[in-house]
Amino acid sequence: MIRSLILQIATRLLVPILLLFSIFMLLRGHNLPGGGFVGGLVAASAFVLYSLAVGVDGARRVLRLAPRTLLGTGLACSVGAGILSLATGASFLQSLWVKVPLPGLSDPLKLGSTLIFDIGVMFVVVGTVLLMVFSVEDRVPGLIDD
Amino acid sequence: MSDLLVLPVVIPLATMVATLLAWRAIRLQRILHLIGAAGLAVASIVVAVSVWNGGIMHLQVGSWSSPFGITLVADVLSAAMLVVVGLTGAAVGVYAVGSIDGERERFGFYPLYHALLMGVSGAFLAGDLFNLYVWFEVMLISSFVLLVLGNETEQVRGASTYVIINLVSSLCFLAAIGLLYGLTGSLNLADLASRLPGVGEPALVTTIAMLFLIAFGIKAAVFPLFFWLPASYHTPPVAVSAIFAGLLTKVGVYALIRVFTLLFTQDIGYTHTMLLGIAMLTMITGVLGAAAQFEFRKVLSFHIVSQIGYMVLGLALFTPLALLGAVFYIIHHIIVKTNLFLVSGLAHRFGDTFELKSLGGLYRSKPWLAILFAIPALSLAGLPPLSGFWAKFVIIRAGLETEAYVAVAVALVVGLLTLYSMTKIWNEAFWKPLVSADRTSEADSERAVNEGLLPAPSLAWTVTPVVVLALITLGIGLYAEPLAIVADRAADELLLPEAYVEAVLGSGVAENQSLP
Amino acid sequence: MDIAAPLLIGLLTASGVYLLLRRSLLRMLFGLILLSNAVNLLILTAGGLTSGQPPLISGTETVMDASAANPLPQALILTAIVIGFGLIAFALVLVYRTYKTMGTLDADAVAAGTPRDDS
User: Fold this and answer.
1) Are A67 and A134 in contact (CB under 8 A)?
2) Which of B91, B334, B453, C56 sits at a 20 to 30 Å CA gap from B265?
3) How many cross-chain Cβ pairs, A to B, lie less than 8 Å apart?
């Protein structure tokens, strides 16, 4: 934790922007460079920045979920995307696509099971990074803990 | 049908997710963990049966066809390895429930355990080199964390050697992959096997083969790359070192066998002669290292190294009989070695130490434990009628057939020295009277329970897996034929890479030519 | 251009190996980072250094344009970077923990095992 007024004020402004940017990166990965991993790193860096400015306890409070729960949820999403394809008779992890017609748009919205997978990846990355960072900051016994 | 192949990977993954999400409820975690471990054992047997009946199976993940997509392949060797993984995974899993302390359970032992199993099963199924690399890393990083979980000084010390050497190995592997891709334009094992003979750059191919040898050699702990193993395997809890001892190095040996039968067979005179030398030196240094040790698990760790030598010897001789021996040896060794580590944990439970000098009197106080130690120990040394006898017998016979007399002599002498080491453990821990009588086991376990360190696990959790594994060892020893038939078919498949190539590429190539 | 990449890989490898042979665990770790970057560059170079288009298939076509760069080495490197990221992060935490418990980062002292008492 670094006690600096400038950092704390800047963090307050930067964290929402970083989080928005991470979602943008996640969705952009659909067709262009980006995706869950980069999005996850950006989101994690927002929380790391917060923990530097306010402290680990503060970051934990803002995060609400334990990093380990995030990690588990993310993995569940990614595995779920694979099992979903199996359940519909396709091969494991095969991409499934649905077209959702939206009012006011000529092209229907294409949604794929890869998006679920990618959201899972994002959660895993955020969970992993925060688990590591918090465990270094915390100094409690056990290498990986929270 | 071939969708079955994802099961050995998806079941540990799902178990990992479930135990991770249930990280606050230890009791629930244990139940999920046991279900997952049993599920993996069942799934591996199902896969093995269908491979045995239907021949080599392959699955294109996500329906991206071979050689472009990720391929999972199971031939008889992979399937047999999967079954052993399933069995030892379940056995050690049960043992872990009865022996892992609450602290480690809270810090995620169970998810990590299943991540490790997932990495190992994935490595046995991988049909392309990069996929193999990824599974190696999954296995590696979960083993890293399992190794230091608990954060004891001794663990942290052993871990730094382990981590750094294994990271170097991964980088060698990756560099070899890059070079091979540059040379052939493919990483699919089957595709590589069909392309490599036409490449016509023998020197470059052999160089790449040597890079693979270094990378897998570090994982398999062959001479002179084994130093990380005895430095680290005695530090984590017994359940962890047992699963490491059983599976991790064998994945390295499996990878060696895979690439040196399927890919790099152009210059056998060079590569396999080198393997022969490595095998002999590995056997000797391992067993001599063990002779100098007086800590239960360190002795066993050095013996892993020495036994790896036998498996590499089988690969180096490169005849059907020798490969049969190597496959037989790997399967026998995983079961026996895992069991020996579990027994060392039981000895620790009653004697409160791993130091052979301070142990003693176990034969008098726990005669059943002495028998449970004697079965895997004598099997490791290769005495009839136990599984190790047949494993050594086949390899030595293959050595005699190819007139590799030096290797045969080394193998026999090392067998004798193994017996010496096992006798040493027997004498020190079981036969000699207990030196200091002030530390009785009952008092110790009572103290631990009172302090709330242990959830008073019942002895049955830790003894049952040892008994089951000992029975398997006995069973293989008394009725070796079924396993010999399996190993024979695995060896035949290894020496006929064309069948492997055809099984993987045969149907896939024609319909997908759309990529440049 | 053709010679620049191999030279860079060589330089990174040499520096990496040099650092790996130092006694401080932290330097060894830096060596590993350099080596992993060298290997990633090696994959890129081995896959063929071309200044092609991004390997994306446009909406109306089914076959990739011939001018596109080879996507496979990029995919491999991306995966390797992700894995490397995890491993290095873990190794950093481990080095930190080693320092906390042993009070030193000298590899020999760590191996000899003289832990600090106040940890």
Assistant:
1) yes
2) B334
3) 64
Question: Does B61 sit within 8 Å of A144, measured CB to CB?
Answer: no
Residue of A nearest to C79 (CA): A37
Record the pTM.
Answer: 0.89
- Tell me if C96 and A136 make a contact (CB, 8 A cut-off): yes
Coil vs helix vs strand at B205: helix
* Whole-angstrom distance, CA of residue A55 vs CA of residue B266: 60
Q: What's phi and psi for C49, nearest 5 deg?
A: -90, 105
Residue B288 neighbours by CB distance under 10 Å: 14
Q: Say if the Cβ atoms of B168 and C20 lie within 8 Å.
A: yes
Q: Which amino acid is at C40?
A: N
What is the distance between the alpha carbons of residues A145 and B56, in angstroms, rounded to a whole number? 43
- The structure tokens 């004798």 sit at B416
Print the SS3 string covering chain C.
CCCHHHHHHHHHHHHHHHHHCCCEHHHHHHHHHHHHHHHHHHHHHHCCCCCCECCCCCCCCCCCCCCECCHHHHHHHHHHHHHHHHHHHHHHHHHHHHHHHHCCCEHHHHHHCCCCCCC
Taking the Cβ of residue A75 and every Cβ of chain C, the question of whether any pair is shorter than 8 Å is answered with no
Q: Give the closest residue to B323 by CA, choosing from B483, B79, B491, B499.
A: B491
What is the tens place of the pLDDT at every residue in B465-485? 899 999 998 888 888 888 989
Domain boundaries, chain C: 4-50+69-112
**∠ CA C65-C71-C76, rounded to 5°:** 170
For A145, the closest chain B residue by CA position comes to: B107
Q: Give the mean model confidence (pLDDT) for residues B308-322.
A: 91
Determine the straight-line distance between the first and last CA of chain B, rounded to whole angstroms: 30
Of A37, A132, A139, Cβ closest to residue C89: A132
Distance CA(C44)–CA(C59), nearest Å, equals 27
Per DSSP, B298 falls in state H
B164: three-class secondary structure by DSSP: helix
CB contact B10 to A (< 8 Å)? yes
Q: Which of B13, B145, B148 sits opposite A79 (nearest CB)?
A: B13
Say how far apart CA C101 and CA B151 lie, in whole Å.
9
What CATH topology corresponds to C4-50+69-112? Helix Hairpins (1.10.287)
Query: What ipTM did this prediction achieve?
Result: 0.89
Alpha-carbon dihedral sign for residues C51, C57, C61, C64: positive
C100 has a chain A CB within 8 A of its CB: yes
Length of chain B: 516
Instruction: Report the DSSP pairing between strands B57-60 and A109-112.
Output: unpaired
- Only one residue has tokens 């418990």, namely C101
Subunit contact B16:A86, Cβ cutoff 8 A? no
CB contact under 8 A, A86 and B21: no
Nearest to C86 among A31, A128, A139 (CB): A128
For CA atoms A102, A107, A112, A114, the dihedral sign is negative
First-to-last C-alpha distance (Å) of chain A: 17
Beta strands in B71-119 (DSSP E): 71-74
Could you tell me if B198 lies within 8 Å of chain A, comparing CB atoms? no
Q: What is the mean pLDDT of residues A6-22?
A: 92
Nearest residue, CB atoms, B516 vs list C29, C64, C107: C64
Rounded distance, CA B478 to CA B476, Å? 6
B107/A142 touch (CB, cutoff 8 Å), yes or no? yes
* Cα separation, A113 vs B375, whole angstroms: 52
Under an 8 A CB cutoff, do A143 and C97 touch? yes
Q: Measured between alpha carbons, how far is A84 from A82 in angstroms, rounded to an integer?
A: 5
Phi, psi angle pair for C97, to nearest 5° = -65, -40
Classified as helix, coil or strand, B357 is coil
